[in-house]
Amino acid sequence: MTGSVVVLFKKAVSNVTAIAVFGSAMIFSSAAIAEESAAGEASIPVDALKSQSGNSVFGDADPAFKMIHKNWSNQGKKELVKLTIPSRKPVADFTLTSSYGFRSDPFKGRRARHKGIDMAGPIGTPIYATADGIVGRAQWVRGYGKYIEINHGNEIQTRYGHMSRLNVKPNARVKSGDLIGFMGSTGRSTGSHLHYEVRIAGEAVNPIPFMQSNEFLIAQKMKPGEALGGPAE
Fold first, then answer.
1. Rounded to an integer, what distance in angstroms lies between the CA atom of residue 215 and that of residue 66?
2. Where is 19: in which H helix or E strand?
3. Residues 17, 114, 116, 202: is their CA dihedral positive or negative?
4. CA 56 vs CA 10, 21, 47, 61, 112: distances in Å
5. Of 51, 85, 119, which residue constitutes the final position of a domain?
6. Which end of the chain is more exposed for a tag (fewer CB within 10 A), N or C?
7. Are residues 113 and 181 in the same domain?
8. For the chain, percent helix, then strand, then coil, each to nearest 5?
9. pLDDT in tens, 30-64
10. Does residue 201 share a domain with residue 99?
11. 142-185 residue pLDDT tens
12. Residue 43 counted as domain residue
């Protein structure tokens, strides 16, 4: 994936995030919604991001998503790589304790970038894969504690940190909604929570647009200072 495509994707994610903050849910085609209902909360193949008319469901006014869709679709045809996009919550019920972006680091007390979101809950809370993929590392990683990364095709990756117990091993194939581990407070953490990241070509992007916006807004109880963490920069 070229650097220009990654930049355009990050711009598009920023646009969708702004919409989510105002309470607008992400809209998918009727075919994709029907498929998701039948399969629980299945990951969404990139082709499902087209409406019945063949246009991007994000609208013709967003050239970034159109270009990315074209790029990924072409790569999938040439390389036969299945691409799935994270499209569900990794935790059923949670309290958002830290958002994506800059914040006051809970350990150093200074402004630092937070590359994911912190989703707090009791120790042992189930954590689920947010899209189909193949497990990369499933081990202790400094900062993240007990950690899992899942590769979803064409340089899309999700990361899950601070778990109390892992339920998958490296190279395992997982489906969206599969149980991959349990919430904890391992590694660089101040309390039981999941540190969740979405990465494109190695670059962290805001995970919020990849979750159901209306449910995410309900979860924003924001308890600063409780159950925070994440690797240091």
1. 26
2. helix 3-21
3. positive
4. 17, 22, 9, 9, 35
5. 85
6. C
7. yes
8. 25, 30, 45
9. 343 344 444 444 444 545 444 454 544 444 444 54
10. yes
11. 999 999 999 999 899 999 999 999 999 999 999 999 999 999 99
12. yes
Residue 224 lies inside a defined structural domain of this protein: no
Could you give the CA distance from residue 96 to residue 60 in angstroms, rounded to a whole number?
Answer: 33
DSSP state of 50: B
- Owning domain of residue 111: 95-219
Same domain, 81 and 100: no
Looking up tokens 């650097």 gives 3
- Are residues 81 and 119 both part of a single domain? no
| Structure-token pair, residue 106 | 């809970």
Residues 79 and 146 in one domain: no
Contact between 70 and 9 under an 8 Å Cβ cutoff? The reply is no
- Does 69 lie in the same domain as 104? no
